[in-house]
Predict the structure of Cold-shock protein.
Amino acid sequence: MQGTVATFDDDTRTGTVLLDDGAELRFPAAAFDASGLRHLRLGQRVRIDRDAAGAVVKVTLPTFP
């Protein structure tokens, strides 16, 4: 699933993504850390990976594997 970064806190490495359907989804620091990224900017397009329970486990750029 994809969305747009709505908020991102560099200190806590947490934030929210506005999904294409308009829903807002929070992501934890662990999901950001799993991406290998160093920063996200507001308005940036991202891909969200979830586990079987629906928890966000990774936030990456759409072009990253």
In short: The chain has a mean pLDDT of 94.
